[in-house]
């Protein structure tokens, strides 16, 4: 009798474990709630994001493009983008506009040598073009002249706009990290706090020149993974996340450690405008959230 009972118990236990594994590995249909919404385009969303993943390759820049610049460097780029983030926030423009601005800026600097005294002008014009592309009411040229403390005039802005458009061959339609952030946050079934923290972290990375080594989709995935770990206190990456986002937890770890480092210095470094922006009620004061140090300490 005693010999039979453990065998029966063991079999039952194995069945329970197998059933648990089935539930843990179950994929969630993240588009199910939008199935009846014709504007959501559920039947096309898979093909759209497959296309975005192919196209993002063409919007990537060389990670060493600053080597061709004689008067500017990666630190100056960071200072410029830090300032643009503040300007973007003051104008209360769409997030898409900010991410496209940085994309245009890097793609232009990769192809065009720029003098130090023209770098701010390049940033303003990238901001202007992105605004025209994304906004219903984009910033006016004269407004940009004013916020530059009139270092440039209207003619300077228009001439640089022509040069930038010609240099980039009018190619504005590339997927930025924002496009992937929206889809990936849906895969995580994110609440407002996770969304705000994810955007806080990715904007911290916008100013960092070394993060250009990562594609837009990879950056979006790494930011969201880091934000989840930060909020939940454990490594959080479900089967649904990996399936829809396309990156494994292991592949994100190296980038995640850099993100934690940038988070740690967000309020004490030289570039603190992202921290100031997200240290406000409209963003739930997510800048006050402590970095997830256990990700850095993990081997």
As for the CATH topology of the largest domain, it is: Cyclin A, domain 1
What's the name of the CATH homologous superfamily of the largest domain? Cyclin-like
Poorly predicted ranges = 1-10
Shape: globular
How are the SSEs placed, and which strands pair?
Layout: H1 4-24, H2 42-59, H3 74-91, H4 95-111, H5 119-134, H6 141-147, H7 154-167, H8 177-187, H9 192-206, H10 216-232, H11 239-245, H12 249-264, H13 273-278, H14 294-297
Helix pairs in contact: 3-5, 4-5, 5-7, 8-10, 9-10, 10-12
Domain Cyclin C-terminal: 175-292
Subunit structure: Interacts with the CDC2 and CDK2 protein kinases to form a serine/threonine kinase holoenzyme complex. The cyclin subunit imparts substrate specificity to the complex.
Keywords: Cell cycle, Cell division, Cyclin
In short:
By secondary structure, this protein is mainly α.
Would you give an account of this structure?
One of its GO terms (biological process) is cell division. GO terms for molecular function: cyclin-dependent protein serine/threonine kinase regulator activity. The chain is 63% helix and 0% strand. The chain is built from 14 helices and no strands. Helix 5 packs across helix 7, helix 8 crosses helix 10 (216-232) and helix 9 (192-206) crosses helix 10. It is globular and about 60 Å long.
């Amino acid at each position: 009798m005693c010999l039979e009972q453990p065998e029966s118990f063991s079999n039952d236990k194995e069945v329970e474990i197998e059933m648990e594994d089935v539930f843990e590995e179950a994929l969630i249909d993240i588009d199910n709630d939008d199935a009846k919404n014709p504007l959501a385009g559920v039947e096309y969303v898979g093909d759209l994001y497959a296309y975005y993943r192919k196209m993002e390759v063409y919007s990537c820049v060389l990670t060493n493009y600053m080597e061709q610049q004689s008067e500017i460097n990666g630190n100056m780029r960071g200072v410029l983008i830090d300032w643009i983030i503040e300007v973007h926030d003051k104008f209360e423009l769409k997030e898409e506009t900010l991410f496209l601005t940085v994309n245009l800026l890097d793609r232009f600097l990769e192809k065009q040598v720029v003098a130090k005294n023209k770098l701010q002008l390049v940033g303003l014009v990238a901001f202007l073009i992105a605004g025209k592309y994304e906004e219903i009411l984009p910033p006016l040229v004269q407004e940009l002249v004013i916020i530059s403390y009139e270092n440039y005039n209207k003619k300077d802005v228009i001439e640089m706009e022509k040069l930038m458009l010609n240099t980039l061959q009018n190619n504005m339609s590339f997927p930025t990290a924002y496009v992937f952030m929206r889809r990936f946050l849906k895969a995580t079934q994110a609440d407002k706090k996770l969304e705000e923290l994810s955007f806080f972290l990715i904007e911290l990375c916008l100013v960092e020149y070394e993060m250009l080594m990562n594609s837009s989709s990879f950056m979006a995935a790494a930011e969201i993974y880091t934000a989840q770990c930060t909020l939940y206190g454990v490594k959080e990456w479900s089967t649904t996340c990996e399936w829809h986002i396309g990156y494994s937890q292991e592949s994100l770890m190296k980038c995640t450690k850099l993100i934690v480092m940038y988070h740690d210095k967000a309020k004490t470094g030289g570039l603190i405008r992202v921290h100031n922006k997200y240290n406000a009620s409209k963003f739930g004061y997510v800048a006050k959230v402590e970095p997830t140090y256990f990700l850095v300490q993990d081997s």
